[in-house]
Amino acid sequence: MKATSLAVAIAAVLTTTTGFAASVVDTTETLPEAQAGECFAKVVIPAKYETQTVDLEVKQASEKINPFAATFQASTERIQVKEASTKIIPVAATYGTATETIEVRPATKEWKASLKSGAQPASTALLAAAKAAGLNLETTEVGVCYHEHFIPAKYKTETVDVLLSEASETIDVTPAVYAWGEETVLVKEASTKIVAVPATYKTETEKVLVEPEKVVWKKGQDLVDRINTTGEIMCKVKIPAVYKTISKRVVDTAATTKTIEIPAKYVTKKIQKLVTAAQEKRSPIAEKRGTVTKTVLVTEPSFTWHEIHDKTMSGASRTGHQICLVGKPAKYETVTRKIVKTAATTKVIQIPAVFKDVKIQKILQAAGDDRIKIASVSETVQKRVKVADERLEWRRVLCRTNMTSGVVGSIQKALSAAGFDAGAADGQIGRGTLQALDAYQRDKGLNRGGLTYETIKSLGVDVTI
After folding, report:
1. What's CA 252's distance to the chain center, in Å?
2. What is the pLDDT of residues 332-380, one digit of tens each?
3. Contact 384, 51 (CB under 8 A)
4. Residue 446 contacts by C-beta under 8 Å, 6 or more apart in sequence?
5. What is the mean pLDDT of the chain?
6. Which residue of 73, 101, 110, 365 is most buried, as measured by CB atoms within 10 A?
7. Prediction pTM value
């Protein structure tokens, strides 16, 4: 509870005393090499600056301007008061007439149910059926018609040899013959009886390794470890091996068995002995065959298309479907149109320029100015230039084993001696100590964000590492 309260206090101090700029470069993606017992924290490596001497212009170069007026002289000069020009006169176009025959409707071809006027178009299904039957619709000429014919299936009669009754056999059985007699019969074979002899036990103790020793990275829990702006403290901690002492029951003498012999048992019984075994007599029966007449399909039913004047097939086989290629010729019209014989043009008439004598004043000397150059003034100054950005890096910080009240007191005294008031040297990390530590790191250009060994060395505090 005490550690939690102080951690909250440290976080509050850091909120007011530290902070990352948006441009801080984070180079802490990979943890550093470390030994067990060492702790590392993300700390702010301050930006690096250097002082440079530069010449700054404090007064720019300029000039002084003294203007003077222009001087004139009177004279007579012939000037143009109206420029030469042209007058354009239009010449009208001449026209004539021409006749031309133009196509107003293209020639068309269409499959219909007949060649009669007003016949309905043939369906796409009917055309597809004709094409599937081998009719070339693309090369058919206009005015040709086709009838669809149905060709029924063809069958033939065949005589087939078939099995009427499979081959088999009859079986006659003669029963077995027995005679009575006496015989000693084994009713129970000789055997053994195994008697179990139980094991004896004793109690032993054993030390068992539950978890081996290991070294792992853990987030820091020390209060001082968390003096940083990110709260991310990683410590490499050695975790000792874990053992457990157990009691176990072990065998003193193993379980065994004892074998007891049991003799065989016999009895005399009256029994029937086999004189003649049962027998069977098999007589074969031949198979029976015959002939049957059956109808066999020779060709499947089909459809075909014939040109209507082809009489090779009977009219009775027609299905009633008919397709005819009907053509409609192109339509032309003769038109008379007006054409240009000679294009409209223009005639250009030249109009000369008009001149006039006038009195004018000519410039002897144009207005101007005299310019006097004034040199610039410069001063030598020093300026601070950033040569490296602020960044985040892992740095070793104090671990719990080194953080004693004596070490903390020495740090407080060193901070106060350096001019950074850390309060009383009470060996406790408080708000005043944290504020003094942050101010010292900023003033000395040290890495900020934790009680690093770099800071401790700068303060001259001896810490056993």
Report:
1. 66
2. 888 888 888 788 888 888 888 788 887 787 777 787 877 888 887 877 8
3. yes
4. 46, 440, 452, 454, 455, 458
5. 79
6. 110
7. 0.31
